């Protein structure tokens, strides 16, 4: 026994020693001194208790070179994933399993567009954003050359190549792609339009319905001479293989001084992004003479897309505008390399791209482009199954080089609302709702994007006849006619991915907007009082209530027999009394979502087929259409086309309930009082390498139970499915609250932690806080930061 005990003790000490050695070899460095060539002055970085770097420098170039280094040491592998997806080189790192992802992005044109943006960047003269970006890249590369590379590279048996400006543009392109709803939705809508009776489509919400909530516009008066603001009072499976998260939605609202206890602006933002490890946003606070900014940065981008100074704050949500059309081309019957265009033929431009593949020879891949854009049949299976004709993607983003770096640089340094608007104008795509508040009491929302003017006969949700020249876009709306609201009388601005109201020219711009459940809850709550504080507003940001779900549930309850719940009365009572809350101990959500899935499947799988039914519930169309589908009694969807008789709503709903109760009994037991929502919800933040066992146990971050839901303010969605276990796949990528009465007391939280390095203390230290609705400070006070920091990294001139 003594020998065994001694052996176990030795094994324990060997394990501890081994871990300490590995941690030292691969972990980030938060203390000490680093020589970095290229600095003009020494810089200091103080890390706070959550690993946020607070960078103090004498020049912008020194600050951003330092930023590049500290960003890379905590997020290099995340940068690697982002740049490889955006440049179409993922298979070179991960092998042929992801070759289809490279083919998809190369066909769509993001790597080609990145190269174009880089060419234009290199032609430009000197600018402060250019020199700062290049300094940031130098800092990233200094870490690659001299720092301790994260463990992932060792596991993959590779080393990173140096970072380039083209990588930055590739990352911007990938970020823009994640907003492209059209390719996930338009093929399905086109199939429905071609194969089903028009009455089927009438029950769906292909376009915004009158009952949906719209964002009100409030256009500012403008100086007629210069247009300036007058501030006088007044593909689903493929996408699931992508090892970096997609940007999906967001909430933001800004409350004017008239509705706050402090008499200052109250600013909130929570961007909704696919959950992953590491978290999407990297926070950094940068100080140099003339500039003080706390920003949220995407991996590989030098400037914070979301952030604040002591005088103003910038937030983002997705605009969800329709900026991508699909043109179905007609081939010349005598020449398959030409397409019909009116009375003439237009050549298809073809090019061969060589895709490097890890452990294999490069793969040669042909890409064809019509006058409307790249042909997508070979990389979007739904298109290939729908038509043999070439279908081209016309996408606003690829039509001109990106100016995202210039825009974000200028937004952070704007000294007034007009300068912010001037910077916002530079973003042509993706469509963004830019939210704004400032110390002077101004609040604003701009929907920024180049908005095409389409001919009246074009339905942008259905494939367009590419042979008809009269289907071409007619031009662009001027920015001043974009949706916006500047200092509205309501005392707040808010966006939640829902439809903006009619524009100043009377147009109702099409998009892939959500129905406005979140916006309505935000709006009703904000106008209910005039004494909001940073503390009291948290309840709204953490709210998990959807008012529509109980109405859907009651519509289903109304058509069943009284004894259909026989033996499961607690479940029935919970649904009848449900207010839409998704509390962890609630019963109603557990029953509702299971019942909803089987009801929708009974309605639609016979017409759509299993594959397209699963596609349907992964699109915005599902969220927007469920109320109409469930509440319409005489819908053609209720009939099962596979049977000779005509089914009714009652039959489909009753059968779905019977199946749901049986499955829930098997899953959670016969006592329906025990079917708490927390038992059905799972949240795991997946790491790119976590898809392979046993690496999932090492890299993934398992979170506590959360109030999973569809379209509540604290949106924590999942894919509806028959299993009854709901894996939360996205949600707030941060929760920011700023009261301009005391900017230095601003708060936020990340879903997992600041660092993507497995051996960092900040890898998952915020996961429990996030799940439990807690916040932490966003520090800007220099004296406090320096006094409380336990970790200081100094960068010296060698």
From TrEMBL:
Keywords, comma-separated and alphabetical: Hydrolase, Zymogen
CDD domains the UniProt entry points to: Ntn_PGA_like
Pfam name, any one: Penicil_amidase
InterPro entries according to UniProt: Ntn_hydrolases_N, Pen/GL7ACA/AHL_acylase, Penicillin_amidase_A-knob, Penicillin_amidase_dom1, Penicillin_amidase_N_B-knob, S45
Highest rank taxon of the organism: Bacteria
Similarity field: Belongs to the peptidase S45 family.
PANTHER family linked to this entry: PENICILLIN ACYLASE FAMILY PROTEIN (PTHR34218:SF5), PEPTIDASE S45 PENICILLIN AMIDASE (PTHR34218)
Protein name: Penicillin acylase family protein
Lineage, highest ranks first: Bacteria, Pseudomonadati, Bacteroidota, Cytophagia, Cytophagales
